[in-house]
């Protein structure tokens, strides 16, 4: 009877602790408060930044900050317009470029986003950088860190129930059960949820970058370049991220939907951030005119 009551208590707690993720509308488990997560993440972030070598690439650093702030502004506008103003107060946005050759970027709760110089080698425009930053901002908006911590708590609850059920069994039985539970929890729950988070961040990131005025089509070109540089042959089922093929296939389906739904935000051809001003200047030069004439 005690075991049943314990199980019912855990289930009731989880059911009463569900929130909806903005934009995606997915129900998510939330057993930890925003204040708990923000306090812990801020401490970790401060420690990281105090030791991280901040990039000296002024142009790239400015680009990261500029694109990041534009996406953050669009994000807050969306939250305010959809009755989620209470969530805006949790964000104190920071966008930092660090001197590291890794092809990586990460986000911490509260809007603390770090981009590594390595990934900038694959970024050829503001639009492609917006793919990266939109994805990271989406992690913060969706409170994926909160959910991961909640999942861990739920697994601890599950472990407690398992322990009560196998209590009194032989040591060998308990050992085997613990191993099976640990393996099942890792590959059956935690990693798939992480892949779900990554895919959700891809989808939400498309929306956020589009609302900020960037071209979502660039998500495909960027991730194709990432795929070409990844060299990752790890099985998707054993990975915390979706495979490159799965990610690209998902984007191919999502991009037309986002463009249709958020058509009003799409950049006009004349104003896309592709260096049109410099191109105009170059074509006005005599050498450029001559070359153009030869082609014609």
What is the approximate shape?
Answer: globular
Quaternary form: single chain
Our measurement of the CA-to-CA distance between the termini, rounded to an integer number of angstroms, reads 86 Å
CATH topology name, in short, is Collagenase (Catalytic Domain)
Radius of gyration: 23 Å
Number of beta-strand segments = 5
Relative strand content? 5-15%
Low-pLDDT stretches: 1-16, 176-183, 275-296
Fraction of residues in helices? 55-70%
CATH class division: Alpha Beta
Which structural class do the helices and strands define? mainly alpha
* Strand/helix succession: HEEHHHEEEHHHHHHHH
> Overall mean pLDDT score?
77
What CATH architecture do you see? Answer: 3-Layer(aba) Sandwich
How are the strands of the largest sheet arranged? 3-5-4
What is the count of helical runs? 12
Largest beta-sheet details: 3 strands, mixed
Query: Please, how many domains?
Result: 1
Description:
The chain is mostly helical. The protein has one domain (32-271): Collagenase (Catalytic Domain), CATH 3.40.390. Helices cover 66% and strands 7% of the residues. The chain has helices at residues 2-15, 34-51, 58-81, 85-88, 117-120, 126-141, 144-166, 171-211, 218-230, 244-261, 276-284, 286-295, and strands at residues 18-20, 27-29, 94-98, 105-108, 112-116. 26% of the residues are buried.
What can be said about this structure in brief?
The protein has helices at residues 2-15, 34-51, 58-81, 85-88, 117-120, 126-141, 144-166, 171-211, 218-230, 244-261, 276-284, 286-295; strands at residues 18-20, 27-29, 94-98, 105-108, 112-116. With 296 residues, it is mostly helical. The strands form 2 sheets. The chain has a 3-stranded mixed β-sheet. Strands 1-2 form a two-stranded antiparallel sheet.
């Amino acid at each position: 009877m005690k075991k049943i009551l314990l199980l019912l208590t855990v289930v009731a707690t989880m059911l009463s602790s569900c929130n909806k993720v903005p934009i995606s509308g997915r129900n998510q488990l939330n057993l930890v408060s925003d204040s708990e997560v923000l306090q812990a993440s801020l401490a970790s972030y401060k420690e990281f930044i105090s030791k991280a070598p901040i990039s000296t690439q002024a142009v790239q650093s400015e680009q990261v900050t500029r694109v990041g702030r534009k996406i953050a502004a669009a994000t807050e506008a969306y939250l305010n317009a959809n009755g989620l103003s209470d969530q805006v107060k949790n964000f104190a946005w920071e966008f930092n470029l660090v001197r590291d050759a890794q092809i990586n970027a990460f986000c911490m709760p509260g809007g603390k986003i770090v981009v590594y110089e390595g990934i900038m080698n694959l970024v050829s425009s503001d639009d492609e950088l917006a793919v990266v930053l939109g994805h990271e901002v989406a992690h913060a908006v969706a409170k994926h860190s909160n959910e991961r911590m909640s999942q861990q708590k739920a697994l601890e609850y599950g472990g407690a129930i398992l322990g009560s059920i196998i209590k009194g069994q032989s040591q060998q039985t308990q050992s085997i059960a613990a191993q099976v539970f640990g393996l099942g929890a890792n590959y059956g729950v935690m990693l798939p949820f992480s892949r779900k988070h990554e895919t959700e961040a891809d989808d939400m990131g498309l929306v956020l970058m589009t609302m900020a005025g960037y071209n979502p089509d660039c998500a495909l070109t960027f991730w194709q370049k990432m795929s070409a540089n990844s060299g990752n042959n790890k099985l998707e089922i054993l990975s915390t991220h979706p495979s490159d093929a799965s990610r690209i296939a998902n984007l191919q389906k999502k991009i037309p939907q986002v463009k249709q739904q958020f058509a009003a935000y799409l950049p006009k051809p004349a104003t896309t951030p592709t260096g049109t001003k410099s191109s105009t200047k170059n074509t006005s030069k005599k050498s450029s005119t001559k070359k153009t004439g030869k082609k014609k």
